[in-house]
Design a protein that fits this description.
Blueprint lengths: L1 H5 L13 H8 L5 E7 L8 E7 L17 H14 L2 E7 L1 H7 L1 H14 L7 E5 L10 E5 L7 H24 L5 H4 L5 H10 L14
Parallel strand pairs: 1-4, 4-5
Antiparallel strand pairs: 1-2, 2-3
């Protein structure tokens, strides 16, 4: 595990394209490289969802980039392609009650750890979106600031996490239409706050978050 911590920021000044991290690791003999990202940290309701993706060596999927810059339709199309074409992928989550217990940062870390553990084949190295190592991961790992726009593996994971979480929120909206989750996906919008003011909180809300303006 000594190598893991030494790798923080290892490639900070060497970005050539969004496969450079994967290529550098492959050149050192690392075979299975997972990119991991999460979605939903800033929401008032719903789980935080994470995904892990292992690409084929040198694999690039046209259009894959940071999920935040893609339209919902494009994300959906790419998510299906990612699930069909990559070596391995997995999705995991932490519930609102777990978020309240752990706080959102560590719940996001736990969701990412779970997604890695759910992979059919255990990765040799994990590329993490952000600047924090995942606790209890027990694998070599490299945090990458803005990794969802700098690593193809992480970008693919960001798309899977976002589309999976959006599907959850659309399903929850059918049960609780008064909060506008079909459009805000649980994020703090005027419509969401208005729903909270009129109808109060649900079991899907994060009680540790500020739920009123």
């Amino acid at each position: 595990m000594g190598e893991t911590r030494a790798q923080i920021g290892l490639f900070a000044d060497e970005i050539e394209d969004d496969l450079v991290f994967e290529r550098r690791l492959a050149s050192r003999g690392v075979e299975y490289i997972a990119g991991v990202d999460e979605a939903g940290r800033g929401c008032l309701a719903g789980p935080v969802v994470a995904a892990a993706v292992v690409l084929h060596p040198g694999q690039r999927i046209d259009g894959v980039t940071d999920s935040k810059v893609l339209s919902a339709e494009k994300r959906t199309d790419l998510a299906e392609q990612i699930r069909n074409d990559v070596q391995y992928w997995a999705v995991a989550a932490c519930s609102p009650s777990e978020i309240d217990e752990l706080n959102i940062l560590w719940a996001a870390m736990e969701a990412m750890r779970r997604s890695v553990e759910e992979l059919e084949r255990s990765p040799d190295h994990v590329l993490i979106d952000g600047n924090t190592l995942i606790p209890r991961l027990n694998r070599d790992a490299t945090p990458i600031v803005k990794g969802d726009s700098r690593s193809h593996s992480i970008a693919a994971a960001s798309i899977l996490a976002k589309t999976h979480r959006d599907a959850i929120m659309m399903s929850l909206h059918a049960q609780h239409p008064q909060y506008g989750w079909d459009t805000n996906m649980g994020y703090p919008t005027a419509a969401h706050y208005a729903g909270l003011a009129r109808h109060g909180v649900t079991e899907h809300h994060r009680k540790s978050f500020r739920l009123s303006r």
